[in-house]
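Could you help me review a protein record that somebody else here produced? Here is the record exactly as it was handed to me:
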Amino acid sequence: MKKLNSGNRSSAAKANGAPKNFDEYLAGVPEPARSTLNKMRAAIRSVVPPEATETISYGMPAFKHKGVLVWFAAFSDHCSLFPTASVIQAFKNELKGFHTSKGTIHFPTDKPLPTALVKKLVKARVAQHESKKQP
């Protein structure tokens, strides 16, 4: 597995400084990563609660609903989804073939995660997040 530079900032963060919203972030991302992230954005939007908002957190696009649910980003040689370590652990068998680290899934810019898998990961993260908010 390729070791990633921990200081590796996302493509848009390098190009534009700190983006203020999703559209600004995506405008700074070259193809094919931009298309990959747009598809991921749509998949995530389809399964998060309707009141979830798009935000920029740590210089990356994130979906927030009573706290951040997931982040995603483009880097120089890959894209990443950040659904938390526990979600990655829960889906480790389905994530074989993808490079994962503690809380991150890395994949080539031109070979996105399958949309159905993104939706499953995000649904699991939403359920996990909601269960923590229960009294």
Observations:
- The first strand starts at residue 53 and ends at 57.
